[in-house]
Amino acid sequence: MRPTRAVLTVAATALAPALLLAGPAFATGTVSSPAPVAVSPAVVVLETPVDEMSDDDVRVALSRILADPDSGRRVIREVNALLDSGTPEEMRAWLGTGYRLAQAEDDTVALSRILADPDSGRRVVKEINALLDDGTPEEIRTWLETGYRLAQAEDDRVAIVSILNRPGISDALRAAVQEAIDGTPEEMRYFLEYGQYEVDA
Q1: Which of 35, 55, 74, 131 could cross-link to 88 by cystine, CB 3.0-4.6 Å?
Q2: Beta-carbon neighbour count of residue 175 at 10 Å?
Q3: Is 9:109 a contact under the CB 8 Å cutoff?
Q4: pLDDT digits (tens, 9 = 90+) for 136-153
Q5: Where on the phi/psi map is residue 168: left (φ > 0), alpha (ψ -120 to 50), or beta?
Q6: What separation in angstroms does the CA of 67 have from each of 30, 39, 62, 111, 112?
Q7: Which one, of 19, 45, 44, lies nearest residue 34 by Cα?
C-alpha cells in the first residue's frame, strides 16, 4: 500500500470506524458474516442549471443537499457554512464546482473505509486501489453506486465456493452452495450472512 493510501486509510478509520465494511473471509474455514455498508447511492441532482436559479432556489438546493441522509461530512460542513454566512454568489459557485469537489473527498473517504477492512475481498480491494491511484471523481462515484455491488458479488461468489472445501460438509449444504452461486448479489450476500447457517440447523 502506498503511503498516500495508508494515510487515507488511517484518517478514514479514525473518522468513522463504525462504517467499516466487512467482506467475506477467504479462508477455508468459516466465512465471515459482514454487515452491509451504507454507501451514498447518489448525489442530489439539481433540476435547474445553477446560473438560472434565483437566490431562493440556491438556498433550497443547499437545504436539499443538507437534508439528504447520504451527504458526507465535508459536504455537510461546507453547506452549513454557506447557509450560515455565505453570499448568493458563493453559494452558486459551490453548487457549480465546490459540490463536486466536496463529494469527491467524501467518496474517497468511503473507499478508504472499505479498503481499511481486512475482510474486504480481492476484487473489491483491487478496484479500490485502481480508483485511488487514477480514478476521477465521476469514476469513483459510479463505482460506489454500481461497481461496488458487482465487485462484492464476485468476492462473495468466491467465498461461497470456498465453503465446499470445509471438511465434513453435508450434502444439504453442498446443494445449497451450488444454488447460491447462481443467485443474485443480494441472494449470495444473504447466504453468506444467514443462509449457510440455516441449512444444517
Answers
A1: 55
A2: 11
A3: no
A4: 999 999 999 999 999 999
A5: left
A6: 41, 16, 9, 23, 24
A7: 19
> Measuring CA to CA, how many Å separate 135 from each of 108, 115, 124, 141?
10, 15, 14, 10
Chain segment 152-191, per-residue pLDDT in tens: 999 999 999 999 999 999 999 999 999 999 999 999 999 9
Of residues 46 and 68, more confidently modeled: 68
Q: Per the structure block, which three cell numbers stand in for 124?
A: 473489491
Q: How far apart are CA 100 and CA 74, in angstroms?
A: 11
Q: What are the residue boundaries of the structural domains of the chain, listed by start? A: 1-23+43-120, 135-201
- Encode pLDDT of 4-27 as tens digits: 343 333 333 333 333 333 333 333
Asked if 13 and 116 count as a contact pair (C-beta separation under 8 A), the reply is yes
Alpha carbon of residue 164 to chain centroid: 29
Judged by phi (left if over 0) then psi (alpha if -120 to 50, else beta), residue 48 lies in: beta
pLDDT above 80 (res 113): yes
Measured between alpha carbons, how far is residue 103 from residues 72, 99, 161 in Å?
7, 6, 37
